[in-house]
Write a structure and sequence with these properties.
about 140 residues; alpha+beta; single chain; five-stranded mixed beta sheet
């Protein structure tokens, strides 16, 4: 009879144990700027994301410039604690300015986000690589 080695256990402490999927919405120099993108209702987009979060139990926060200004608006979909345990990683969505993209981001977050649910195929076409400095910061 051979001995079975138990699987390594991951322990999350405090708030990280229950962290929901989180949408980080860039509102820096280019994203959310009606002068640079006059055909987009940036206020409505943020309001819609927040109302979807309240309805479905994920989180939304804004941040200053995320970096890829030539791909504005940028939203980072961060996995929940359960999604991260399942292998989900932050996913960057660029050119997120139209209603369809906003709704697809909402649907994906409501379904669990990275690691727990597959993103809509059309949303995958808008995935972008994070700027190099963001990848370096995440390894620290």
């Amino acid at each position: 009879m051979s001995a079975v080695t138990p699987a390594p256990r991951t322990f999350l402490m405090g708030a990280a144990r229950e962290r929901p999927c989180t949408l980080v919405v860039c509102r820096g120099c280019c994203c959310g700027d009606p002068r640079k993108h006059p055909g987009t209702d940036h206020g409505w987009q943020l309001e819609r994301l927040r109302s979807g979060a309240a309805e479905h139990g994920f989180a939304v926060r804004t941040t200053d410039c995320l970096g890829p200004c030539d791909q504005a608006n940028v939203i980072v979909v961060q996995p929940s604690a359960a999604g991260r345990r399942a292998g989900g990683r932050p996913t960057w969505v660029g050119f997120a300015m139209d209603d369809d993209c906003t709704e697809e981001v909402l649907q994906w977050a409501a379904a669990g986000g990275p690691g727990l649910a597959e993103p809509p195929v059309t949303l995958e076409l808008q995935f972008i690589a994070p700027p190099r400095d963001a990848r370096v910061r995440s390894r620290r």
